[in-house]
Amino acid sequence: MSTTKERTNITLAPASKKFIKLLAKRDRVPLARKVSELVEIGLELEEDIMLGRVAEERMRTAKKFIPYEKFNWGV
Known about the structure:
By secondary structure, the chain is mostly helical. It has helices spanning 14-27, 31-61. It has a domain at 30-61. The protein contains 2 helices and no strands.
């Protein structure tokens, strides 16, 4: 059966591979699925960090703030 997912080979440190195997066993999922889940979590964290930096920069350089009570929400 073919898959739409692209395969990627990676090399892990022995300790990392052992730990990921333990996590996969604990969660009763294949090793490849656990690695994929961990990569997705890592990508989400990286995105959060990047968006946080963007927000901090906007707050730092913002010239004018509108109080919540005075903002026109279109109601």
